[in-house]
Design goal:
elongated, mainly beta
């Protein structure tokens, strides 16, 4: 649960790593999460940087 944004619920994405010879191997992309204090919420929670940048979160 810690790799998920609490605001937009974005999480880990999966796909293929493609080499120069076009060989495929599975890989993952993690969301850029930051642990922040949100106004009106007790404790800290994980929020992605897109939500912080767009102003969806009121920080303390």
């Amino acid at each position: 649960m810690s790799r998920v944004c609490t605001v937009c619920e974005r999480g880990q994405m999966t796909g293929n790593k493609v080499s120069h010879s076009n060989r495929k191997a599975r890989r993952t992309w993690n969301v850029n999460l930051q642990k922040v204090r949100i106004k009106g919420v007790r404790g800290k929670s994980y929020v992605c940087t897109n939500c912080l940048k767009s102003g969806k979160v009121d920080r303390v």
